[in-house]
Amino acid sequence: MNTANQYQDCIDACNACAVACNTCFAQCLQETDVQMMARCIALDADCAAICTLAANAMARNSEMAKHFCRLCSEVCLACAHECEQHHHAHCQACAKACKKCAQACLDMLN
Amino acid sequence: MNTANQYQDCIDACNACAVACNTCFAQCLQETDVQMMARCIALDADCAAICTLAANAMARNSEMAKHFCRLCSEVCLACAHECEQHHHAHCQACAKACKKCAQACLDMLN
Amino acid sequence: MNTANQYQDCIDACNACAVACNTCFAQCLQETDVQMMARCIALDADCAAICTLAANAMARNSEMAKHFCRLCSEVCLACAHECEQHHHAHCQACAKACKKCAQACLDMLN
Amino acid sequence: MNTANQYQDCIDACNACAVACNTCFAQCLQETDVQMMARCIALDADCAAICTLAANAMARNSEMAKHFCRLCSEVCLACAHECEQHHHAHCQACAKACKKCAQACLDMLN
C-alpha cells in the first residue's frame, strides 16, 4: 500500500498559500492603514479557505479534486492581484505564494 | 446598518445540506454493507466541505461567493446522483437536501 | 433509520453564530474605524471556524463532539465579550448569537 | 515586517497530520474490511478538521491558537490510538503523524 499522494506538490503549495494568506490577514489587521487593506483581508480569507479545502480534498484523493483546484487557481490569482498592489512585505509574500499555488493547481489539472 | 444577509436562503440550504451529508456519512459508516457505500461517504465529505465554505463566504458577502456557489451546485448534484442509488433513508434524505441546495446555489447566481 | 440528529438545536445555534460572526467580520471591514475593530474581526474569524467545525462534527455524531463544543463555548464567549464593547448593530447581533451558541454548547455537554 | 511565523513547526506538523489523516481516510474506504475501519475513518475526519483549523489559526497568530492546539493534541492522540490497532501501512503512517502533531501542539503550548 503506497501512502504517498500523487498530488503532494500541489498539496504543499496550497498549504503554503494558506499560511501566507493567513499571515497577510493578521498583519493587515495590524497596519495603520487597515481601511486600505479591507479587500486584501477579505480575499486572504477566501483564498485560505479554498486552499485548505483543496489540500484536504487532494489528500483524500477526491474525485472532485480537479474541480476544487480549478477554482482554487482562480481565487489565488484574484488574491495575488490585490496583494501585489500593496508594498507591505506580507502582501508581497502572499502574492508570490498565491501565484505559485495557482500554477501548481493548473499543473495538477493536466 | 442592516445585519440581514442577501444570501440567507442559500446559506440556509447550504447548512441544511452539510448536515444531511454529514448525517449520511456517519450512518453509511454504520451500515453492514459499508463497502458499497464508499463512494457515497467520499462524496458526502466533499459536499459537506464545499457547502460549509460557500455558506461562510456568502455570510462574509465575499466577492467570490458566486464562484463558490457554482462549484457547490456541481458537487451537490454529484452527491445527489450517488445517494439516489441507495435505498437507505439517510441517503434519500441527503439526495433531497443536495438537490435543494444545488437549486438554491443556481438561483443565487442569477 | 432515524435521520434526525440528537444535537440539532446546538447545530442550528452554531450555524447561526457562524453567520453572525461572518456578517460582523464583513461589516467591520466596511467601518470607517476599522482599526478599532481589528480584534473583533480576528475573533469573528476564530469563532466562525470553531462553530463550523463543531456543527459538522455534531452532524457526523462524532465521538469528539463534546470536546469541540466545550471549546466552541469558550471562543463564543470571548467573541461575545469583544463584540459587546462596540455599538455597531452587527457587533451587538454577533454578541447575542455568540452568547446563545455558548449556552447551546454548554447545554449539549449535559 | 517579519512574515515568518513563530508557530511554523507546529503548523507544518498539523498540515502533515491532516494529509496523513485524509490519506488514511481514503485508503480505509478502499479496504475490503471497511466495516472494521469505521471508527478509524470517523476519527480521521475529526483529526483532519481540527488540524486544519489549528494550522489556520496559528498562521493568523490567533489569540485562541493555544486553545485550538490543546484540543488538537487530544484528538491526535485519540486518532493515533485507533490507527495503531490496524496493520495497514496508511494507518501506521497516520498514527505516526498524529503522535508527532500531538507533541508539536504540546510543545507550542509551552
TrEMBL record, chains A, B, C, D:
InterPro entries: Csp_YhjQ, YHJQ-like. It comes from the Bacteria. CDD domains: DUF326. Transmembrane segments: none annotated. PANTHER family: CYTOPLASMIC PROTEIN (PTHR37310:SF1), CYTOPLASMIC PROTEIN-RELATED (PTHR37310). This is Four-helix bundle copper-binding protein. It comes from Comamonas avium.
